[in-house]
């Protein structure tokens, strides 16, 4: 739980805790808690993990304390996460933003820490993971539809996949996936496809507006202009 504005009081068996924009907290599903709002209203972000997702990210790790100090970097990650919820690309951009926020709040999971294996061998393993992720995305594997399902397909943590991909490719996984989809848009437009709404649905965009924004971000032109540049005209 992270507080954006205001503050409130939380009571558990461990005692009383005040949450504010500088201090958030973690709680477990079976933990009894009550709340009071002596300071008036507040605006918060509550993020819930299923047991299976938590295990895939952190294993059996449980933080030693429920309190989370929110420094400026964590507040920025929090606000970036909020901004990502307003974007249409929720299958990749939102999970990647959530992973960054969770890592900033909780820290790296123990099972993701560097082990005694040689550094180059570890990099080679990550390189293989990234290569297989790229193949899944390019070939349109059903599991490549979301970051979490892609990580499950590759039998790795979403944390590791996201971090390894950015390191090996120089761009985030979200941008790479969009780059591949933009290439597919160009191919379809060049072949004379005029149904942009149908094209958006076929390629997994939220809607036609999402497709148009993404294409323009990558190539600097909307689909209608691209049709003219490619020698055809949108009907």
From TrEMBL:
Domain HTH araC/xylS-type: 131-229
Domain of life where this protein originates: Bacteria
Entry keyword set: DNA-binding, Transcription, Transcription regulation
Name of the protein this chain belongs to: AraC family transcriptional regulator
SUPFAM superfamilies: Homeodomain-like
A single MF term (Gene Ontology): DNA-binding transcription factor activity
Pfam hit, one: HTH_18
Cytoplasm listed as a keyword: no
Upper classification of the organism: Bacteria, Bacillati, Actinomycetota, Actinomycetes, Pseudonocardiales
Keyword DNA-binding part of the UniProt annotation: yes
């Amino acid at each position: 739980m992270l507080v954006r504005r205001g503050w409130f009081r939380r009571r558990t068996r461990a005692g009383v805790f005040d949450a504010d924009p500088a201090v958030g907290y973690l709680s477990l599903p079976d933990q009894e808690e009550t709340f009071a709002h002596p300071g008036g209203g507040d605006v918060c972000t509550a993020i819930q993990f299923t047991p299976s997702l938590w295990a895939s990210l952190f294993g059996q790790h449980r933080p030693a304390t429920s309190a989370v100090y929110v420094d400026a970097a964590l507040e920025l990650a929090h606000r970036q996460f909020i901004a990502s919820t307003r974007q249409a690309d929720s299958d990749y951009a939102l999970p990647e933003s959530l992973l960054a926020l969770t890592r900033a709040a909780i820290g790296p999971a123990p099972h993701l820490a560097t082990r005694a294996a040689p550094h180059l061998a570890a990099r080679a393993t990550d390189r293989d993971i990234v290569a297989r992720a790229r193949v899944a995305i390019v070939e349109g594997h059903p599991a490549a539809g979301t970051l979490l399902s892609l990580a499950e397909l590759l039998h790795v943590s979403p944390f590791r996949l996201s971090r390894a991909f950015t390191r090996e490719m120089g761009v985030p996984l979200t941008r790479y996936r969009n780059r591949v989809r933009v290439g597919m848009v160009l191919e379809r437009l060049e072949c004379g496809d005029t149904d942009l709404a149908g094209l958006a649905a076929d390629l997994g965009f939220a809607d036609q507006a999402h497709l148009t924004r993404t294409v323009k971000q990558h190539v600097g032109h909307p689909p209608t202009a691209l049709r003219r540049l490619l020698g055809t005209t949108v009907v």
